[in-house]
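Design job #97: recover the sequence.
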């Protein structure tokens, strides 16, 4: 009798133990846009996360350009993920459709994560005007001024540095743009500006993109106009390689043309060297280069837009606590090291950004610390329901001025007529 009771007791213990394990295991769905080969760099760490937490992560990849639309459809159809990668310029407007969970309650009660290690402005990037924290930083996209050392050395000109202004940059760009064979087309360019936009210049000259009440654009002020005039001048063929110009030399785009030694200066993100300027087979660098901060505008002002990738908890998730644990994990030291070292992404943690994982000893650019310092000058676009449409309208309208198809005054007048209706439907 006792033996039977003991066996029954043992069976019940095993059943209860199995139930406890099953209850402890939670599955969250994670949508991202990383290619399979890139995601595999992080996957071993995710496996470790699963073992340590009992939270299973089902990762699903969707193309970057399609992810935001698929998320809307997924929420409507009841098949949305728990955690989703957010691109600021694509996905941020979805916050006004109730897609994302406010992370403030999680942040306020968090006791383990070291928020002080986040780079300046990294957390603020994912915050609305009323304080909602709709995503958590995962990587940053910040520009610096890269330059071809050989071109500067040949001309006997000192390299750009922290004291360089946009006016000086324009002077150099015009000097370095030369037609050696007399065919009327430059064989070497001073700059390529395909990875910057008018916001960098407007802010550097003391202007703003929108008015303080967020109801219309602010590009008509004297300060903003100064920035737009510099944007115009530095975009002309006597200084700048336009995107399509690279094909004349057999290159698919200006970043590749910089690697070929055809461009003196290139404002672009810190990902560029590993992405464009290094032979993936031999590890050899195609060009001798370094970098510094983006130039200054009027009165010593310096500014650049901050962009990047964040991680959000979808509002329909039934596993928000587990999702928060996973988001913290993605912004943890170990993951950020792999992201910076193996994927070439800009880490969001200061301790990783200034470490050998990101600033690799003996590897160019020698002044890569400038990429980290640039975060101090980064600014944000407003998070507004129709901002993406307003910003696109501002860019295309000002582009007509830059392309000499419209005067600046007429471009601003056009924006006066259309932007208020976009921002205040």
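Job complete. Output follows.
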């Amino acid at each position: 009798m006792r033996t039977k009771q003991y066996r029954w007791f043992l069976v019940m213990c095993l059943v209860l133990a199995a139930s406890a394990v099953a209850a402890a295991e939670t599955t969250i769905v994670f949508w991202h846009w990383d290619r399979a080969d890139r995601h595999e760099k992080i996957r071993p760490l995710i496996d470790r996360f699963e073992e340590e937490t009992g939270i299973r992560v089902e990762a699903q990849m969707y193309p970057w350009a399609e992810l935001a639309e698929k998320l809307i459809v997924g929420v409507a159809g009841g098949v949305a993920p728990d955690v989703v990668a957010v691109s600021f310029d694509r996905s941020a407007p979805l916050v006004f459709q109730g897609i994302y969970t406010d992370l403030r309650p999680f942040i306020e009660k968090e006791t383990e994560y070291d928020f002080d290690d986040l780079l300046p402005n990294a957390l603020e990037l994912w915050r609305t005007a009323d304080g909602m924290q709709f995503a958590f930083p995962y990587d940053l996209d910040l520009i610096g001024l890269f330059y071809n050392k050989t071109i500067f050395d040949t001309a006997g000109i000192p390299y750009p540095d922290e004291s360089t202004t946009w006016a000086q940059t324009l002077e150099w760009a015009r000097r370095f743009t030369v037609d050696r064979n007399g065919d009327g087309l430059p064989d070497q360019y001073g700059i390529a500006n395909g990875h910057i936009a008018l916001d960098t210049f407007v802010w550097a000259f003391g202007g703003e993109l929108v008015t303080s009440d967020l109801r219309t654009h602010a590009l008509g002020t004297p300060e903003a106009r100064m920035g737009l005039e510099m944007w115009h001048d530095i975009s002309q063929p006597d200084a700048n390689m336009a995107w399509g110009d690279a094909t004349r030399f057999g290159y698919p785009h200006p970043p590749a043309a910089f690697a070929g030694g055809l461009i003196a200066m290139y404002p672009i993100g810190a990902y560029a060297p590993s992405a464009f300027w290094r032979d993936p087979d031999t590890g050899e660098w195609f060009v001798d280069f370094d970098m510094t901060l983006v130039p200054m505008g009027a009165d010593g002002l310096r500014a650049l837009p901050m962009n990047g990738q964040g991680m959000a908890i979808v509002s329909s998730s039934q596993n928000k606590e587990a999702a928060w644990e996973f988001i913290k994990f993605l912004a943890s030291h170990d993951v950020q090291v792999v992201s910076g070292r193996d994927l070439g992404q800009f880490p969001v943690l200061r301790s990783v950004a200034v470490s050998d994982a990101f600033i690799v000893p003996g590897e160019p650019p020698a002044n890569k610390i400038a990429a980290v310092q640039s975060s101090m000058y980064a600014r944000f676009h407003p998070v507004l329901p129709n901002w993406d449409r307003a910003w696109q309208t501002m860019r295309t309208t000002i582009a007509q001025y830059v392309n000499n198809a419209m005067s600046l005054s007429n471009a601003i007048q056009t924006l006066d007529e259309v932007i208020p209706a976009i921002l205040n439907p």
